[in-house]
């Protein structure tokens, strides 16, 4: 019998990390790993940071936890102001949570309450993409487009309308412009068939995450979705759980595209692996409508506690102080060039896509037909195991559903320097030969 009482996932016994510093971790056998995926794309500032530890200790010395209905919470107010500032005031209200799933869940529930408050209770459906990943709670899972995760729960989730987003790698339209136009036209048809006045919101990751291997959207597509939402009177929710807080080279990925959401969920990088912190950012009038109708009927015990918010604030301030966004842009260019060189060398690297320090590499059996490897080959797991042998951590997944295949994400900490970026690429190349 397995001696451990933990049950996360079946798999071999894993080594334990004894210490970590910057972009490196060492396990209890002394092996060193370069963190090419920031843990779960969360340890954005690397490990062992004195400034974050000092800020957390200072807050711990004052008070770790107070409850939001009983006391004012200065770190929460300060972090909320900082986040609003990062959107240049486009999203003026903040609701704290402790995870990405909770942030998405909160967005869905706020959207629903908004329409109930406005006398449009028939707006109770959501539209989202397949493939996509929005979280593991039942609401967030309901808008997730990823069959293996959905399968046991399809009859008890909210079951959103799933539509295809653009696929710039596999489409067979005449060019990208016509592809986006066709995808938008198909989306319009699907919404018309479902009944536009039943839709509360469209939920999107502005750059696909682990479920798609960083599948990209583009400005024309996002502008088209924004226009559809405006035309049909529903909200646009962006899931920036993974892309938010600098991962793509902007504070939020939507800022690359000039398309503003009504609600935005973020998490992972906000606590940067030091503490769980997530946030829902919202347009002020949406929040005011809900608050005027009796308040938001939602909340979690640990959400926005002083220690969480002091950590998030220390993360944002460190990033501002150190100009981390310009590092993301510079290192992102190096990573892109290196990954594309690997693509030129290895024919089974079908596609390299991404932005900033969020890169997806898709592996194919045939680069001409773009046919994925048969599932039983488990290439996604094999390449990650080979990389680990070379002392490199990457984030492997397979998109089933016949929509793509094996891929992995390369998402190092946003503070990685040029030498370690080169080292990452060297280790990856050694794993691939
Ligand atoms: N949305 C996206 C885009 C994510 O990548 C994730 C986490 N992988 C989530 C939501 C859920 O976040 P969490 O695991 O913190 O609940």
Automatic annotation (TrEMBL):
The keyword DNA-binding does not apply. Keywords: Aminotransferase, Pyridoxal phosphate, Transferase. Its cofactor is pyridoxal 5'-phosphate. The keyword Transferase applies. It comes from the Bacteria. SUPFAM superfamilies: PLP-dependent transferases. One of its GO terms (molecular function) is pyridoxal phosphate binding. Belongs to the class-III pyridoxal-phosphate-dependent aminotransferase family. PANTHER family: AMINOTRANSFERASE, AMINOTRANSFERASE CLASS-III. This is Aspartate aminotransferase family protein. It comes from Billgrantia montanilacus.
